[in-house]
């Protein structure tokens, strides 16, 4: 009798994860109120809030100084960044995009379970296809470093060009996974980038709109 074919591993950057579902909840603590989020296997940071995202949540920057317009959470996972932004900025619409359909379904559910109505969840191509905003006041991301440099760079180039002229993007990147080289690459692509925080092995990079 032939051996059964093993199920291939699922990654948080897969579009259609095949890993068996095993949901788990965690709490995101914030200054206004806490958020309870449900995660699952093959979504980023299943079962807990990862350290890098926690650092970013504590250092969004002064959103009241940003220009008018929507916010973007690039690679939203199950939604800790998008939902925290939506809670703190109820008059703003927050777009939450990811390639992982399991994560998107959970992000949408988490927004509903936390009574947040200003979060729009969709696949990246659907945002463009459904006449989403042509510019964003700001973009936040814990970018998917593990997809590899070519895909990561292509993703960042696609979305950072949509920053409003006086907006910014904040990225949290592990120092040991190439935060400094990413900063140099962004600057080589004419995106002025400064390190605004270095803590617990992570950097927060603030990226300004392209200068060319």
Spell out the CATH superfamily: Vaccinia Virus protein VP39
Let me know the largest β-sheet. 7 strands, mixed
Helix content: 25-40%
Q: Which fold does the CATH topology refer to?
A: Rossmann fold
Flag low-confidence runs. none
Radius of gyration: 17 Å
The level-1 CATH class: Alpha Beta
- Write down the overall mean pLDDT: 93
Q: Strand portion, in percent?
A: 25-35%
Order of H and E elements: EEHEHEHEHEHEHEE
Structural class: alpha/beta
Please state the oligomeric state of the protein chains shown: single chain
Per the principal axes of the C-alpha atoms, what is the gross shape? globular
Using DSSP, what is the number of strands? 9
Number of DSSP helical runs: 6
Task: Describe this protein with a few key phrases.
Rossmann fold, 212 residues, two-stranded antiparallel ribbon, globular, seven-stranded mixed beta sheet
Short description:
The chain has helices spanning 51-57, 80-88, 101-113, 124-129, 149-160, 179-188; strands spanning 24-28, 35-39, 71-74, 94-97, 119-122, 136-141, 163-174, 193-199, 202-207. A hairpin with a 6-residue loop joins strand 1 and strand 2 (35-39).
């Amino acid at each position: 009798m032939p051996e059964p074919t093993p199920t291939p591993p699922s990654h948080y950057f897969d579009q259609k994860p095949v890993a068996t579902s095993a949901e788990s909840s965690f709490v995101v603590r914030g200054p206004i109120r806490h958020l309870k989020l449900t995660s699952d296997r093959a979504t980023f940071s299943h079962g807990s809030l990862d350290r890098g995202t926690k650092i970013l949540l504590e250092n969004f920057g002064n959103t009241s100084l940003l220009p008018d317009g929507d916010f973007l959470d690039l690679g939203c996972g199950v939604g800790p960044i998008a939902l925290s932004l939506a809670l703190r900025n109820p008059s703003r619409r927050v777009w939450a995009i990811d390639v992982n359909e399991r994560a998107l379904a959970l992000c949408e559910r988490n927004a509903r379970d936390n009574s947040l109505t200003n979060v729009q969840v969709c696949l990246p191509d659907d945002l463009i296809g459904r006449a989403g905003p042509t510019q964003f006041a700001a973009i936040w991301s814990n970018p998917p470093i593990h997809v590899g440099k070519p895909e990561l760079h292509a993703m960042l180039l696609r979305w950072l060009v949509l920053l409003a002229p006086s907006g910014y993007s904040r990225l949290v990147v592990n120092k040991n996974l190439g935060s400094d080289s990413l900063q140099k690459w962004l600057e080589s692509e004419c995106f002025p980038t400064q390190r605004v925080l270095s803590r617990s092995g992570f950097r927060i990079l603030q990226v300004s709109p392209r200068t060319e």
